[in-house]
């Protein structure tokens, strides 16, 4: 875990890395490398699996030590999977407006600006977030180490 924190710090402080922009609806930009596109596709699939409450797909994606930071708290893998499975938070739709990915060694970080429609305690909530996802390549497969929701204004943009 210490190595992961160091890797994340290095990426954030400017270690040379590649940047990519995903193909978004209405966008023709596609400068992602094959590995960056793999991460972007995995991130997009994750949002769909969360909407579908498909914990069978999410369980192997989430590292056993993964952490999830929400507006209402921070928890680990088992609690996040339970929240998804039981619908305590139903991530109905993540409308992705802007996304960037950077890869440094075996660590990838995805920043997404989204409008999330989620059902929480029986009511729909529509919230603007910047979401940070940290992945690590383990045994030739990407694992999600951290997912953090940060509430932002809808005018916020991801710096690429």
UniProtKB/TrEMBL annotation:
Residues 39-144 form the DUF4440 domain. The keyword Signal applies. It comes from the Bacteria. Residues 1-20 form the signal peptide. Keywords: Signal. The keyword Transferase does not apply. It holds the Pfam family DUF4440. This is DUF4440 domain-containing protein. It comes from Hufsiella arboris.
């Amino acid at each position: 875990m210490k190595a992961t924190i160091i890797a994340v710090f290095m990426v954030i402080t400017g270690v040379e890395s590649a940047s990519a922009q995903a193909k978004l609806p209405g966008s023709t930009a596609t400068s992602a490398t094959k590995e960056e596109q793999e991460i972007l596709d995995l991130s997009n699939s994750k949002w769909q699996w969360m909407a579908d409450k498909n914990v069978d797909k999410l369980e192997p994606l989430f590292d056993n030590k993964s952490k999830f930071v929400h507006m209402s708290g921070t928890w680990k893998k088992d609690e996040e999977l339970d929240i998804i499975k039981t619908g305590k938070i139903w991530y109905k739709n993540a409308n992705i407006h802007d996304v960037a990915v950077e890869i440094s060694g075996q660590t990838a970080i995805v920043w997404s600006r989204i409008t999330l429609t989620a059902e929480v305690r029986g009511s729909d909530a529509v919230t603007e977030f910047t979401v940070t996802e940290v992945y690590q390549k383990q045994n030739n497969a990407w694992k999600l180490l951290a997912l953090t929701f940060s509430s932002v204004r809808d005018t916020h943009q991801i710096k690429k």
